[in-house]
Structure formats: structure tokens, C-alpha cells
Amino acid sequence: MTKVLTAKAVEAMKPGAARREIPDGAVVGLYLIMQPSGAKAWALRYRAPDPRKLTLGRWPAMGLAEARTAARAALGHVSEGGDPAADRKAEREARASGRDTVRALFEDYRRRKLKLLKAGDQPARMIERLMLPTWGDRRVQAISRRDAIELIEGVAERTPVTANRLKAYGAAFFAWLVARDVLGTNPFEGVKATRETSRERVLSDDEVRLLWKATERVGYPFGPLARILLLTGQRLGEVAGLCWAELDGDVWRLPAERVKNGLAHVVPLSAAVLAELEALPRIAGGYVFTTTGRTPVSGYDRAIRRLRSAMAEVAAEERGDPVTIAAWGFHDLRRTFATGCAALGVPVQTAEAVLNHVSGSRAGVAGVYNRHDYGREARAALDRWAAHVAGLVQERPANVVRLQV
Question: I want to staple 139 with a disulfide (CB 3.0 to 4.6 A). Which of 94, 149, 330, 387 is the partner?
Fold first, then answer.
């Protein structure tokens, strides 16, 4: 009976005069290869349908547990009719030519399909952020349904809504490849959607104060990005993609192609927002929030973690004890803005105008006959909200006015 390897036994193994293959009794087909030089590596032997060998990685960079995980994943691919060794060889060839990689074909998809769609930027950004880092250099023919499930499940652990959007965008991309005869089947076909729950997270006044102080520690670009999101109530993609050319004095003119509902939008800018913009660096390329000058900022999940960590640090320093900050996302700042405006007595139709929501008084028949743009009211609401936030940050009630004596 083949012995089950242990990490201690693998570490203690000494080389001999000839190359050896030591099987692992825990995973059929997994071997530790011992070279006369003392070098050790993991390999998997399987049939597909002829005998195949797949090198998994070198020890100790790949430990025993990692080798077993990799071997089981490869055997799962074999059980679905795949051939991991052939896929790896084809991927190396594809990487050299660049023709059939996910990244190369996605660029073709973006140019031929997404650029023709009014809302094409959103799926492009999501695929770039969540799919290409993992799959970009792989051949599309090597992407299996198991890969698609694992990708969606990984995203769903953090944000179920985003996982479902990524599933839809990924399925559309691979359907396009099937239609062009690049693939025979769509790996997203049959992948179940993730159950979504209604989001109700609103930051409390104290959390708004902590967030503001945290943004000062985090700095550019995500510190001022979070402050402008909070002060304006606009969508993350719209603020993150803000260009200097869209700013016109004390208003921000959002073109229709950059707005989720396809309606051009004018956002009055409070003095607080103008001060934020004035303090920002001007990086060549035109984007207000960028690290490359060529594209808007990305990496939102990491930015949220940094901001939450900084909030906890500020709170712990103030209170002398560790503090846990409940999870929140950038979209929750938009909800916090809307909720805060309601608490300040801002009429619903004015808040809808600021948020560029086509609902309630701005939808259906009411929207047809009500052509008022609420520009003056929107400016007053944004100024009132900015004053409220300033009051929170200064740790005194927003409705208290210091008298000059």
C-alpha cells in the first residue's frame, strides 16, 4: 500500500544516485520527484486517454498541501474531459503568440462589441478588474465550467451583487466567442446566480466622522475620492472616472455616455468639493483620480479595506480600545448621502435630482410634465449636506453656529 506522505518526511528525504519518483498515498497520481542533485518537485501522472505527466511545482515553494490541492484540481479537469498538460503547453504557445488568450480576445471583444454599447464601459471595467488578473494569460479553450464557478464563488464571498454582474458579463463575452467559432461551449452556461440581499448599510454620523479622518491618513487617490463620493452622492464609476474637462466653474457636467441611466447630468459643486479638487495633483492624461494618467483608479476592494482599517485606527486612538468597523462599500456612501439629506429635510424630488434617479416625481407621466431641473434646490441641498459633514468632522452639532463677539 502506498504510504501517505507527510511534510516532515518530504523535508527529510535525501537524494540518491538516480532520479526517483515517490508516490503520495493521499492523491492517486501525485508524485514527489527527487533529483540526484537534491532538487524536489511535484508532478501528476494521469490518462487523457494516453498517459500524461503534469509538473505542478517545485518544493519547497509548493508545499505538500498545495501540491495535493493542485493535483485534485487537475484531476477534476480531467474528469470533465480536459487535459491539463496539453492545456499548459497550448497556453505557453498562446502566450507566445498572444492570439487565443483571454486578454487578447477580450480586447477584440471590447473593440468590436462593447464600444458599440452605451453601457459598454461597465462590463469592460469589471472584466478587467475581476477576470483578467486570473485568466488573462490563459487560452480561452482551457477555461472550464469549474473555473467559471470558482471565479464567481470567489467574488460572491465579498459582494454577491458584483458576482452576478460578472457572471452576466462573462457569459456574454464567452457567448460572443462561441458565436465566432472560437469556442464550442460557454463555460458560464449553467453557472448559478448568487443570491442577492437588499443592501441597507448607511454610515452613522460617528462613522462619517471617522471615515473623513481615515481618508486624510489614506491620502491620494482614494482618500479624496471617498470624500467627494460622500459630499456629492454620485456613483462610484462616475466619480472615479471624473475628468478635469468635465468641470465647469462650480458645476460638474457629466456626459450621457458616462452615466448609468444614459441621461446627461449636472452636479452643483459645494465650496467643500471645490476645495478638495483644488488640492488635488494634476496628472497628465486628464483624469482627476489616476495613478497612471492613462486610466482611472481601480482596486476598490483593497481601498475599502485600507479605509476601514484607518477608521478603526482612529477610533481606537480616540477610545483607547480596539474597535471593529462594520463592513461598508463605496455605494453605501451614496445611500448615506441620500439618507442624510432626508434627515436634513431635503425634499425627495430634490434628492432624486442630485442623485440623477429617474423615479418618483421624475418618472413616468410625472416626469413628462415636470421639466423643472431643480438646479437651485440641488445646490442648496449639497451645500446643506457639506455643512452637516463639516460639523461632524469638527465634532460639534452641524446646527450650532458660533457667534462672532
Answer: 94
pTM exceeds cut of 0.70 = no
Question: Are 251 and 259 a contacting pair, CB within 8 Å?
Answer: no
Q: What percent of the chain has pLDDT over 90?
A: 57
- Count the neighbouring beta carbons within 10 Å of the beta carbon of residue 337: 26
pLDDT value at 399 more than 50: no
Nearest Cα residue to 234 out of 202, 282, 266, 274: 266
Q: pLDDT tens for residues 206-245?
A: 999 999 999 999 999 999 999 999 999 999 999 999 999 9
Report which of 260, 261, 241 is spatially closest to residue 252, judged by C-alpha positions.
241
Residue 105 sits at the vertex; the CA angle it makes with 122 and 109, to the nearest 5 degrees, is: 45
pLDDT band at 260 (very low <50, low <70, confident <90, very high): confident
What are the grid coordinates assigned to 312, written together? 478603526
Residue 361: phi, psi to the nearest 5?
Answer: -70, -10
pLDDT > 50? residue 396:
no
User: Residue 268: phi, psi to the nearest 5?
Assistant: -65, 140
pLDDT at residue 376 tops 50: yes
Average pLDDT for the chain = 86
Hunting for cell 474531459 — which residue is that? 81
Q: Are 123 and 162 in contact, with CB atoms under 8 Å apart?
A: no
Neighbour-count burial of 138, counting CB atoms closer than 10 A to its CB (0-12 exposed, 13-18 middle, 19+ buried): buried
Whether residue 176 contacts residue 108, with contact meaning beta carbons closer than 8 Å, is answered with no
CA atoms in the 13 A half-sphere facing the CB of 107: 8
Residue 62 near residue 56, CB atoms below 8 Å: yes
What average pLDDT does range 46-74 have in this prediction?
91
Q: Are residues 307 and 211 in contact, defined by beta-carbon separation less than 8 angstroms?
A: yes
